[in-house]
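We emphasize that the prediction below concerns an isolated chain of 113 residues; any contacts that depend on oligomerization or on bound cofactors are therefore not represented. The input was used exactly as deposited, without trimming of termini.
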Amino acid sequence: MPPIYACAPCTHPNPPSYGPPHHATQPRCPIDALKLGACVDVLGGLVHIGLGDPVVNTCCPILKGLLELEAAVCLCTTIRLKLLNLNIFIPLALQVLATCGMTPPPGFVCPPL
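Result of the prediction step, given as a token string:
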């Protein structure tokens, strides 16, 4: 009697293939951060004045078209390039996003350089 096999042409399934490991990348500013220099200069004047028209006229046109995270990162980058105190200017920068109709991501912190 010939041997009995459970399956005629047994095939072994190929193990799943995995691509290269996914590494989370730091968000980057897609525009020249120096374009926001005038916006950050406006922020410097707003430390004691408050927000309003200067932000709408100076900052919002530059931030228009950016994703909210990109806009936040761009403001962080520009503040750092101008060597300003992040602790003072980041709350203002996040308020700029709100003034321009953007919502900063929950718990957003400026990424390291």
